[in-house]
Amino acid sequence: MRKVNLLRCDVARDASMQDLFSELSDTRVALSQAYARFNAVCAPELVDACVYEINAELSRYDYLLRQIKERSGEAVYKTCSEGVAKWG
Hints:
The chain is mostly helical and 88 residues long. It has two helices and two strands. The protein is elongated.
């Protein structure tokens, strides 16, 4: 997997990109905390709640990552009218 340091690019000077990076960082922390709660709980109801929270944070993280890649010119996951996924 190729790592791209977007902070060294010109996009880092854009305020909206900086906001996206900040939100991504906050989401990463929230995801870490959700995993920690999942590992600490015992009650089945709390396990379910932690799973939902982890899935929500993962969805948000994926969304923010797609937004950053889209704005920086990276390949973006797109869907066509038939519902088949394509990379474009």
